[in-house]
Amino acid sequence: MIQVSELHFSTEDGIKVLDDVHLHVDQGELVYLYGPPLSGKTLLLGLLSAHVPPQQGQILVYGRNVTRLSRQKTLDLQRRIGLLPQGFVPLPRTVMGNLLFKLRLLGNFQEQAEEKALFALETCALLQQQGEDAEMLSSADRLRLGIALSLCDDPLLVLLDDPLDGLESQQQAEICQLLRRLNTIGRTVLVTGRATMPTLSAERELLLADGAVIPA
Amino acid sequence: MNPFFLLFREMLGAIRARTALYLTLVGVSILIFLAAMSFLLLSTTAADDATAYADSEVLVILSAQLSSSAIDDFYLEVRARSDVRSVTLRFAEDVLPGETGPRLLINAVSAEVLDRLSEELLAMDGVVRVEGPAAEFANLNGIPLPGALRIGLLAILALGLAGCLLSARYGFRALLRAFAREIRLLRLSGVSERTLVQPIVLLGVLLGFLAAFLLVLIGAVAHVITVAGAGFLGVVQWGAVAQTGVLVVVLGIVLGGLVGLLGAGTLGGREFRPFA
After folding, report:
1. What burial letters (b/e) apply to A167-181, b meaning 16+ CB within 10 Å?
2. How far apart are CA B163 and CA B169, in angstroms?
């Protein structure tokens, strides 16, 4: 699913953020990648999802070399990846409205969009709140909505950037349970965080430190 | 609904009072720009006004279908009238380029008989219309503008353009900031830049079109009022008004589109990028 090799990335000031990163994630895996703040986790997800152009190295996602994709193929790849950014803030709409906005603009017909949205909401246990104002949700439910948004258009790969940050332990446990459920329904999930997360029961935990990925 | 129109509708939904004010200013600026432009298009230079008519002159427009013998008969009949001092046959091309049909420039014995003469001429066979007073008809080619007014119009033109660009910059930025979360989400989801840019350009085009349409409407109403008040065709022919109207609408659409493109340039900002 993901194959990263010899990946290097430096800031404009010349600071090395990623230094010879090697990463391999198989299809259907649940991988947890953690590291201290500013270690490059968000950057790595940006590179994997083709939102940040790589400087050096090779990134294969779905067998496609991200560094050599045309503009259209990059967009196609981005559509097949569900990405939840760090500090997700919902749109000023209802919970259902958030999902329909994305799905309709990605070309889904109304009925199809509603069907996909309901499935995503059901998976994330948000069906009851579908008519509520998304901005009024609790932090855990906002996160559920973010996850629902990232998986609503049937991606095979879901990238979640530091989703558990700021949650209480009970909420973290519930979200971890949700992430495991996503994994069991066939999604490849790569989650980032700041510290180890035993409650996630990830198949692999990796540490990103000093610009390199090492098994924890 | 098509994603393009859906996004456009959602974008319109993000318009707040301040954004609406800026966008209205964009429209008003475009209107001012186009108004100055259309005055300049309709105006004549001093050289165009060289033909001068006396107060006692009237122009008779004959049907283009008239045979040469019928025109001769008409000419002789008019010349024989006691209230007519002289008759000059002119071709339409001499007076108004692009128009056809013979015209008779009639010099009455005095300005007092002009009204009655005009009515009687209008009742004669083959007469399409009678225009006067001649002094105003002399400017049928356009509105005579002195040099200073021309410079003033050019200044208004520049001001309108500057106002338009400035208000567009602030207006579109405010609009897109209110829509920033949606834009970031769409970019994360792999929506193309073209999809994001198109509704913004359409909004600019709509603003330009509305401004131009309003201007044409105002121009047409003003023209009709002028005609009704003065009892003649006005200082500018309907053809010229219509032609300028079409040109103004096209210019409005183009200018609006360019303004929209300028607004879409805001999308390059860091706040709209998911990985800034």
Report:
1. beeebbebbbebbee
2. 10
In this complex, the residue of B3, B184, B188 whose CB is nearest that of residue A104 is: B3
Please tell me which residue of chain B has the smallest CA distance to A111.
B1
pTM: 0.75
Q: Is B181 in Cβ contact with A78 (below 8 Å)? A: no
Q: Which of B191, B274, B275 sits opposite A105 (nearest CB)?
A: B191
| Closest chain B CA to residue A72 | B192
Round to whole Å and give the CA distance between B40 and A158. 61
CB atoms closer than 10 angstroms to residue B188: 22
Whether residue A85 lies within 8 A of chain B, CB to CB, comes out as yes
Q: Do B192 and A75 touch (CB under 8 A)?
A: yes
> So what's the ipTM on this one?
0.92
Alpha carbon B25 to its chain centroid, in Å, reads 20
Chain segment B62-120, per-residue pLDDT in tens = 887 788 888 888 888 888 888 898 888 876 665 555 566 788 888 888 888 888 888 88
Structure tokens at B211: 């401004």
**Of residues B60, B61, B63, B78, the one with CA closest to residue B126:** B63
B206-248 pLDDT, tens digit per residue, is: 999 999 999 999 988 887 777 665 544 445 567 777 888 899 9
Q: Which two tokens stand for residue A72?
A: 């259209």
- What's the CA gap between A21 and A48, in Å, rounded? 12
Q: Which domains does chain A have, with CATH numbers?
A: 1-80+156-216 (3.40.50.300), 88-154 (no CATH)
